[in-house]
Amino acid sequence: MGSHKDLTDSDPSTSDASTSDSTTSDWTNSMDPLPTPSTQPGRDALAALLARPARALIALDFDGTLAPIVADPEQARAHPDALPALAALAPKVAAVAVITGRPADVAVRYGGFAGVPGLEHLVVLGHYGAERWDAVSGEVTAPDPHPGVEAVRAELPGLLEGSDAGQGTWIEDKGHALAVHTRRAADPQGTFDALREPLTDLATRNGLIVEPGRMVLELRPPGMDKGVALSEYVRELGAESVLYAGDDLGDLPAYTAIDKLRSDGTPGLLVCSGSEEVTELSERADIVVDGPEGVVRLLQTLANRTT
Ligand SMILES: O=P(O)(O)OC[C@H]1O[C@H](O[C@H]2O[C@H](CO)[C@@H](O)[C@H](O)[C@H]2O)[C@H](O)[C@@H](O)[C@@H]1O
To answer: Where is the composition biased (Low complexity) (predicted)?
Structure first.
C-alpha cells in the first residue's frame, strides 16, 4: 500500500470540473466515475485518499446517509447495498467508522453491522460520540447517565400533552437522551418550530442541550458532538486523510472538524447526502450525492478504485 494510483480520470486536480464552484457532483465522465469535488481542498483530499487508501478514514453518519429517511424511526434500516459496499471498502482503508446520534447498539442493529465479513474492525460511535461499539469485541462503552435525562423523561409527556404543538409528535427514548419527532405531525415544520422554545427551556432547566435535526428536537447531555468524536478518532488512528459523509445539522461539527484538520495539514473530504432539506450542510460540502443511494454508489466506486 502507499503506491500512487492511476488518477487519469479521477485525479481531481486535472479534472475538467476542477474550476467549478458548484457543489453538484459530476458522475458522468467515465465508465467507473468518481464525482469531482467542488473545492480544491476536497480535490486534494480525494487525491490523497486514492493515493494512500490504507491511511484513510471513512466516517459516515447513519440516518439519511447509510439509511434512507423513513417516517417511523424504529423502521430505519441501512440501504440494502450499504453493507456490501462498506465490506468491500473497509479492508482497503485504515478504518470505517459510523458516527451517529443513535445509541450505538441501535445503529449496529438497524445497520446490520455485527458479524459481517470485511467489517471486523468497524467502529460505531453512538450518541454523537459519547458511546462506542467495536466490532472486534462486540462491546459498547457508554458514559454514566446524565441526571437531567431522567427529569426530562418525567416531564416531557405532560409538556407535549398540554400543548397544541404536541399533537402528532412521538417521543423516542434513547436511554441517554430523549428525542421529540414531528415528522408524523399534521404540520411537521410548524410543530417543530412551535416546540423549539419550550423544549429548549425544559432542556436548559435540566442541564441538557437541544440538538435539532430533520423533524426532530433531541434533549441530550452537553459535552460531546460529532466533531469531537471524529477528531479524536482521527488522532487515535493516525489517519492521513478523512472522508466524512452526513446529511443533517448534527453533522455540522464534523464538517468543522474536517476544516480544522485541513488547516492542520490532514486532507479531508466533505460529502453531503442529499441537498435540499439541510442546505447548511450541502452548501459546505465538496461532493453532494443523491441520498443513501448516492452514498452507496460513492463507497462502491471508492472500493473499485482502491487496492
Ligand atoms: O446521526 P444520525 O445517524 O443521522 O441520527 C440522527 C437521528 O436520526 C433519527 O431520526 C431521523 O431519522 C428518522 C428515520 O429515518 C426520521 O424519521 C427522523 O425524522 C430523522 O430525524 C433518529 O430517530 C434519531 O434518534 C437520531 O438522532
So the answer is: 10-30
Q: What is the pLDDT of residue 51?
A: 97
**pLDDT of the residue at 26:** 45
Mutating to test ligand 1, I would choose from 178, 216, 247 the residue with most ligand atoms within 8 A of its C-beta, which is 216
Q: How far is the CA of 195 from the centre of ligand 1 (A)?
A: 17
Q: Considering just the CA atoms, what is the radius of gyration of the chain in Å?
A: 19
* Segment 232-238 mean pLDDT: 98
Confidence of residue 32 (pLDDT cuts 50, 70, 90): low
Q: Helices in 9-131 by DSSP H: which ranges?
A: 40-51, 82-89, 104-111
Quote the pTM value.
0.91
Looking at the DSSP assignment, which residues form a beta bridge with residue 178?
173, 219
- Helix segments in 15-162, DSSP class H: 40-51, 82-89, 104-111, 147-161
Q: Which atom of ligand 1 lies at the shortest distance from residue 66's CA?
A: 3
Measured in whole angstroms, how far is the alpha carbon of residue 109 from the centre of its chain? 17
Q: Which domains does the chain have, with CATH numbers?
A: 12-142+224-305 (3.40.50.1000), 147-220 (3.30.70)
Residue whose CA lies nearest to ligand 1 atom number 23: 73
Tell me, letter by letter, the H, E, C secondary structure of 222-242. CCCCHHHHHHHHHHHHCCCEE
C-alpha cell at 195: 416546540
* CA 218 to ligand 1: nearest atom: 27
Decide if the complex's ipTM is over 0.95.
yes
Q: Which residues pair with 124 in a beta bridge?
A: 98, 133
Each as own residue / partner, the long-range contacts of residues 12-19 (CB below 8 Å, 24 or more positions apart, any chain) are 12/36, 12/37, 12/42, 12/43, 12/44, 12/46, 12/47, 13/43, 13/44, 13/47, 15/43, 18/43
- pLDDT at residue 214, as a whole number: 96
Instruction: Find the 300 Cα to ligand 1 centroid distance in Å.
Output: 24
Grid cell for residue 221? 447531555
